[in-house]
Write a structure and sequence with these properties.
The protein is mostly helical and about 150 residues long. The protein has one domain. The protein is about 75% helix and about 0% strand. The chain has 4 helices and no strands. The protein is elongated and about 75 Å long. The two termini are about 35 Å apart.
């Protein structure tokens, strides 16, 4: 398996651990009479869904989708490497930024800096999905037929 899908999958495994750790901490807080702000429950779900599931799905997709060796000869048909790393960076910078910015925004008085960081985190995650859509589209689209008489 190439390094790029492994990076997504290993990052997903780290988020799985962190999600369960956060869940255990929140459960312990509730069991001991401490109130858990609802924003932490939202972040817990986001960490599990985006951090674990999306990272693993992207990693498996990069590994399993059909090859296009004509277009991507340098990666043995897999994908444009730079775009994959941009997707990885956007997803895995945007998510931790959200995990910090959203509670800060919700609980810290909705300051302009926390709002800007929250918007940035969302933009990074949208960019990651856009890069992924491009990568997957290039691997599953039907290639154009060559012009008549061209081989």
């Amino acid at each position: 398996m190439p390094i790029e899908p492994r990076a997504f999958i290993k990052t997903g495994i780290a988020y799985l651990f962190l999600t369960f750790l956060a869940g255990g901490i929140m459960t312990t807080m509730e069991a001991t009479g401490h109130v858990v702000p609802p924003v932490f429950e939202v972040e817990h779900g986001h960490m599990g869904f985006v951090g674990w599931l999306v990272n693993v799905v992207v990693g498996v997709a990069l590994w399993m989708f059909p090859l296009d060796q004509t277009r991507f000869a340098q990666t043995r048909g897999r994908y444009p490497t730079r775009t994959v790393w941009l997707c990885y960076a956007c997803l895995n910078i945007g998510l931790p930024l959200r995990l910090v910015a959203e509670p800060w925004y919700q609980l810290g008085g909705r300051h302009a800096l926390s709002a800007a960081l929250l918007v940035t985190s969302g933009a990074l995650q949208v960019a990651a999905v856009t890069f992924l859509a491009y990568i997957v589209w290039m691997r599953v689209r039907v290639p154009r037929a060559p012009a008549p008489g061209v081989r």
